Amino acid sequence: MKKYNKLTKSMISTALFLFMLTYVQGMQQESIPQGLEQQIEQIRKDWDIPGMAVAIIKGDKVIYANGFGVRELGKSAKVDEKTLFAVGSTTKAMTVATLGMLVDEGRLSWDDRVIDVLPGFRMYDAYATAEMRVRDLLTHKSGLTRGDQVWFGSPMDLQEVFHQIRYLKPAYSFRSNYHYQNLMYLTAGLVSGEIHGDSWDNVMYKKFFRPLKMRTSVTNLKDLAKRSNVATPHGIVDYSGKLEPIEDRNLDNIAPAGSVYSNALEMANWIRLNMNKGEFEGKRILSEKVMNEMHTPQMHMSYSTPNQVTNFSLYGLGFRVSDYRGHKMVSHGGGIDGFITWIGFISDIDLGWVVVNNGGSRASTLVGYEIIDAFMGLADDIDWSGDAKKSYDKSMARLDSLRNDVDSRRVFSTETRLQNSGYAGDYNHEFYGEMTISVSGDKLIISRGDALNGTLNHWHYDTFRVRWDEPRERARYGNEFISFHFNAKNEVVYLERSLDGAPRYFKKK
């Protein structure tokens, strides 16, 4: 009997060894097109990206996962397939997935009214308030402008930002136009949390990350601080043209729209779930019906023919749906200070990809297209990086020209109308909230709570150029201008700041 047990154990051990050997060999035998890895590294170098990570999926397997470059300039730690990056707006489809779970459970319909779930929900337009459906939140048809500066560099918390939505005037009629919107995804996250009976963050960890084995992925900077293999974002500060490390952006107040940090390997699990129509490693996470709805066009975005490979772009639920060389492509990008991500899949050719970088450039998208073309045998058909670099250089030249034009219009030898104390005070915008101007020694200080601080330097007349304290803010805003407006009594009544592409007027209290 003992001899039999020993023999059995030996056979089991041998079988297990052979299985593991076969599995590893199987992974090693999977190959990617010749020259693709070198092309990825070349794009990274051409675009001066500090670090990048890539995962490629075929046949429900991650056949390639690798890192390139470093986590932070000036430091030696390398990027690998497990390095965490901010994945930005690719978070949106994850939020949709948590809603899809509720749809599968019969606790939610895509066409339920938002106000029935969140009684405190209000839009500027009463009709939109009453008729906004969950589906509308997810398809960028609210009629609103972006309004991102209400949360970006803002001291407001998530609930305060949610409350401010009622003050954002629509740019279009409800459901008439596609216009990308983060605030509606914040609202979608609150809907998810309300019905799940937990916070959006906890729902993500319990219902999304855990079943998909995304064990190191996080939804906030507090949890990110507990991780060691993390990429640092980089940005061009003060128009230097040189990338520098910058601070991570706290996205707690817009979390369901873009706060996730993940890595190439774990994001590949999310792509596998999509490619397998709701199944992951034999377990049903979402129904095929829900997944099909997410991948079905819901809103028209645009018609275009860049390089004559894409004819139309549509929006599903958290994903962009387009054609690529005659195949249906489901994808989405993500961008937040110093990070750019592109994920997607084309079922027709059984190919999925994840590309993340910490240089804040579109190199992730370019690498993605190179991956697709390589697997289609069209690697030399389009020079994605070269063509994009020409376009980028032209854009930079235009920006330089605009900056030079602004500089040339400066009127020297002018004085401010008032002493510094005359500009000091609290200024309020109904939607964007408060800005404060204060005096420190002989300097004027501009602040937005603890979230945004800088110094006002006189430019001409009553216009000042801002130098933001944090390199991250200088990389984001540059040296923007603040102008003051007066009444007949020579008193300041408004502070003018350009936000979301237009001048916004903050009234002095």
Describe the model.
By secondary structure, this protein is of the alpha+beta class. A hairpin with an 8-residue loop joins β9 and β10. The chain is globular. α2 runs antiparallel to α14 (363-375). It has 17 helices and 22 strands. The longest helix has 28 residues, at 2-29. Residues 1-29 have low confidence and may be disordered. It folds into two domains: 34-381, Beta-lactamase (3-Layer(aba) Sandwich); 420-508, Lipocalin. The strands form five sheets. Strands 2-1-14-13-12-11-10-9 form an eight-stranded antiparallel sheet, with helices on both faces. Strands 15-16-17-18-19-20-21-22 form an eight-stranded antiparallel beta barrel. Strands 3-6 form a two-stranded antiparallel sheet.
What is the strand and helix layout of this fold?
Layout: H1 2-29, H2 36-46, E1 51-58, E2 61-69, E3 85-86, H3 91-104, H4 114-117, H5 126-131, H6 134-138, H7 158-164, H8 183-196, H9 200-209, H10 221-224, E4 234-236, E5 243-245, H11 255-258, E6 261-262, H12 264-275, E7 279-280, E8 283-284, H13 288-294, E9 299-303, E10 312-315, E11 320-324, E12 327-336, E13 339-346, E14 351-357, H14 363-375, H15 384-408, H16 420-423, E15 425-429, E16 433-440, E17 443-448, E18 452-460, E19 463-468, H17 471-477, E20 481-486, E21 492-499, E22 502-508
Antiparallel strand pairs: 1-2, 1-14, 3-6, 4-5, 7-8, 9-10, 10-11, 11-12, 12-13, 13-14, 15-16, 15-22, 16-17, 17-18, 18-19, 19-20, 20-21, 21-22
Helix pairs in contact: 2-14, 3-8, 3-9, 8-9
